[in-house]
Amino acid sequence: MEKTHPGVEALRQILKDETERFGKESHGHKVLHRKYQKTIIILTSVTTVVAGAGLVVPQYADSFIQFVVLGLTASTAAISSWSELRRARELWQHERDIFYKLLDIQRELEFISSTRELKISEVDDYFNRINHVLGSSTEKWSAIVEKKNP
Predict the structure, then answer these.
(1) CA 73 to each of CA 24, 32, 56, 116: distance values in angstroms, whole numbers, following the listed order
(2) List of long-range contacts for 29-32, beta carbons under 8 Å, 24+ apart
């Protein structure tokens, strides 16, 4: 049995930790984004139905229905704004992109290291690729957060 370079195990651990982290983070942002979208769709639909209720029930077509429509519209606008402020969709997409890039490196590392022992320069190259992905991730994350907090 061939001996594995100790750096390969460190790379495997880094990739395992980071893919788990980005997997969890992206899942959380995906759920948050979808909750916002569903809430906006429901509020918009309910607003439309309530606005049309004045045609069906004319005795309530006065200020009561107008007030309910106003409240629903304000709620929809607030949730839309909050959703945009949180940037859940952008963060989810960003985290998934990093997650898949790390998985690609991990898959390649596993394949190559299963066929032969890696040279020190190759271990360094893999480490640098991981650092590049994570470094660009930090830069892109900062740009997304800057948009979030101008």
Answers:
(1) 33, 21, 20, 63
(2) 29/88, 29/89, 29/91, 29/92, 29/95, 30/88, 30/92, 30/96, 32/86, 32/88, 32/92
Give the relative orientation of helices 6-56 and 120-148 as an angle to the nearest 10 degrees: 30
Asked if residue 113 lies in contact with residue 4, where contact means CB atoms within 8 angstroms, the answer is: yes
- Band (pLDDT 50/70/90 cuts) for residue 1 is very low
Region at 66 (left for phi over 0; alpha for psi -120 to 50; beta for the rest) = alpha
Contacts of 109 (CB under 8 A, 6+ apart): 8, 11, 12, 15, 126
Rounded CA-CA distance 40/129 in Å is 40
Angle ∠(77,82,84) on CA atoms, nearest 5:
95
Residue 54 has pLDDT above 50, yes or no: yes
pTM of the model: 0.75
Q: Burial level of 126, CB count in 10 A (0-12/13-18/19+)?
A: buried
Instruction: Match 């983070």 to its residue by tokens.
Output: 25
